[in-house]
């Protein structure tokens, strides 16, 4: 992957020359080892680029996310440096996330993963129903719903 990322300055130079102005490229290659079961791909990874306010650091953003999600059972901020992986959320209602520095100064990258068949649809509906009916938020959501 390093060889691919090393090509970014050349890509930026070529695009900048063609556009006659400075072009900055955000390029993130993803290796997505997915298991296909009955033609159903489970897992979604989101890569989110954040432009931070002047003076804000990646560490500041990490700490704010840690505070924001500390009481959320199904959203977990991973230890620093750990990349979220779709296979870690397969069959669950969890969202795993982390923050990384971007190569572009003043920006950060947030990576999150969910099982799009659970957290992205049915698990989210059940979680909302639990809240609406006054049940514990995690009722029916702590067991892996996988077949086969």
Largest sheet: 4 strands, mixed
**CATH topology call of the largest domain:** Dihydrodipicolinate Reductase, domain 2
- Name the shape in a single word: elongated
Strand/helix succession: HHEEEHEEEH
By DSSP, the count of extended strands is: 6
CATH class of the largest domain: Alpha Beta
How far apart are the first and last residues' alpha carbons, in Å?
33 Å
**Low-confidence residue ranges:** none
Task: Please tally the helical runs, counting DSSP H or I stretches of 4 or more residues.
Answer: 4
Please provide a written account of the structure:
With 148 residues, the protein is an alpha+beta fold. The protein has 2 domains: 31 residues, no CATH class; 111 residues, 2-Layer Sandwich (Dihydrodipicolinate Reductase, domain 2), CATH 3.30.360.10. The chain is 30% helix and 20% strand. It has 4 helices and 6 strands, in the order ααβββαβββα. It has a 4-stranded mixed β-sheet. A two-stranded antiparallel sheet has the order 1-2. Strand 5 and strand 6 form a beta hairpin. The two termini are 33 Å apart. 17% of the residues are buried. The mean pLDDT is 83.
Describe the structure using short key phrases.
single chain; 148 residues; alpha+beta; Dihydrodipicolinate Reductase, domain 2; 2 domains; four-stranded mixed sheet
Give a brief outline of the structure.
The protein is an alpha+beta fold. It has helices at about 1-5, 10-20, 60-70, 120-135, and strands at about 35, 40, 45-50, 75, 95-100, 105-115.
List the helices and strands and how they pair.
Blueprint (H helix, E strand, L loop, with lengths): L1 H5 L1 H12 L16 E2 L2 E2 L2 E8 L6 H11 L6 E3 L17 E7 L5 E8 L3 H16 L15
Parallel strand pairs: 4-5
Antiparallel strand pairs: 1-2, 3-6, 5-6
């Amino acid at each position: 992957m390093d060889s691919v990322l090393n090509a970014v300055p050349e890509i930026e130079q070529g695009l900048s020359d063609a556009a006659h102005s400075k072009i900055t490229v955000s390029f993130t290659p993803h290796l997505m080892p997915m298991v296909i079961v009955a033609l159903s791909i489970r897992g979604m990874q989101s890569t989110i680029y954040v432009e931070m306010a002047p003076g804000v650091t990646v560490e500041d953003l990490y700490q704010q996310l840690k505070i924001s999600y500390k009481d959320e059972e199904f959203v977990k901020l991973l230890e620093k440096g750990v990349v979220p992986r779709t296979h870690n959320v397969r069959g669950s209602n969890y969202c795993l996330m982390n923050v990384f520095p971007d190569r572009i100064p003043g920006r950060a990258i947030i990576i999150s993963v969910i099982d799009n068949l659970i957290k992205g649809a049915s698990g989210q509906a059940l979680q909302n129903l639990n809240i609406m009916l006054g049940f514990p938020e995690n009722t029916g959501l702590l067991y892996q719903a996988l077949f086969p």
